[in-house]
UniProtKB/TrEMBL annotation, chain A:
Top-level taxonomic group: Bacteria
Stored Gene3D superfamilies: 1.20.1260.10
SUPFAM superfamilies: Ferritin-like
Family indicated by similarity: Belongs to the manganese catalase family.
Binding positions for Mn(2+) per the UniProt entry: 35, 64, 67, 135, 168
A molecular function (GO) term: metal ion binding
Cofactor binding summary note: Binds 2 manganese ions per subunit. Binds 1 Ca(2+) ion per subunit.
Claim: Transit peptide is one of the keywords in the record: no
Cofactor: Mn(2+); Ca(2+)
Keyword Metal-binding: yes
Binding-site residues, Ca(2+): 59
Protein name: Spore coat protein JC
From TrEMBL, chain B:
Every Protein CotJB domain range: 15-90
A Pfam short name: CotJB
InterPro entries: CotJB_dom, Spore_coat_assembly_CotJB
Keywords of the record: Capsid protein, Virion
Protein name per UniProt: Spore coat protein CotJB
Species of origin: Paenibacillus rhizosphaerae
Length: 189, 91
């Protein structure tokens, strides 16, 4: 069960209408290393991971949905006042004819999200190493996105998200150690 | 149809919301830390203290700006307040 809370995890502000930046942000919405992929990856892996690390997968997976909502809010705010001409100039004409200004789970190049971006191997270490890699790739993407804009309000939200990737990566690395310790015990007893 | 009976979003709305976002951020962070450090007593104490501290802020926010949560986790005035704007992406 999930309960919705009517607030963002962190304030999202933008200082101008910028559909081009909105298009780039879709990488973290429906891209391979984006927030949707992250949330679905962890919440799906948790069913078959050892009990000691279910909590961290459950809670990081849940937080990813809050990040997905922040990205959506950025995209929404950056495009809500855009004219069709502005969308066209930003390279969003193909998006406009299919979706108007609706959000869609696709990456910055317009490729729709697919489950083949994520894995569930049933092997706890294989799954956790994928999760660590996913966080590091997302952290890098956030840095490249920050580099692509001079909007300091938007950068503030993106920097928060970049820092969260670092914390999640750290927690997953600790989960790896927990699994390894547990395996060591079984071997010797 | 747009934003009917929308509670006024004023300066205090943003101030209270940010106060809550700060406490709730610390709670998320402590929660994740405790998931992998369940024996850290100081963090558990801090977690429980912040869980207490958020209650009056939530109450004050909800009295002015409506429920923060659905499915019975907050009371409602008449008419049902939950589906009323603004939603988080609108402010």
């Amino acid at each position: 069960m999930w309960i919705y809370e009517k607030k963002l995890q962190y304030p999202v502000r933008v200082s101008k209408c910028d559909p081009y930046m909105a298009r780039l942000l879709l990488e973290q919405y429906g891209g391979a290393d984006g927030e949707l992929a992250a949330a679905l990856r962890y919440l799906n892996q948790r069913y078959t991971i050892p009990d000691k690390v279910i909590g961290i997968l459950n809670d990081i997976g849940t937080e990813e949905f809050a990040h997905l909502e922040m990205i959506a809010t950025m995209v929404y705010k950056l495009t809500k006042d855009a004219t069709p001409d502005q969308l066209k100039a930003a390279g969003l004409a193909d998006h406009y004819v299919n979706h108007d200004k609706a959000l869609f789970y696709q990456n910055a190049a317009g490729v729709p999200w697919t489950a083949s971006y994520i894995q569930a191997k049933g092997d706890p270490l294989a799954d956790l190493y994928e999760d660590i890699a996913a966080e590091e790739k997302a952290r890098a993407t956030y840095q490249w996105l920050i580099d692509m804009t001079d909007d300091v309000d938007l950068q503030d939200g993106l920097k928060f998200l970049r820092e969260r990737e670092i914390v999640h990566s750290t927690r997953f690395r600790e989960a790896v150690e927990i699994i390894k310790d547990d395996r060591g015990k079984k071997r010797f007893f | 149809m747009e934003n009917q009976s929308k509670p006024a979003v004023d300066q205090r709305y943003y101030e209270l919301l940010e106060k809550l976002q700060m406490i709730d951020f610390a709670l998320v962070e402590l929660n994740l830390f405790l998931d992998t450090h369940p024996d850290d007593l100081k963090s558990i104490e801090q977690y429980n203290r912040l869980a207490q501290e958020r209650i009056p802020i939530v109450r004050e926010f909800q009295e002015s700006y409506g429920p923060l949560m659905h499915f019975g986790h907050a009371y409602s005035k008449f008419p049902f307040e939950w589906p009323q704007a603004p939603w988080p992406w609108q402010v």
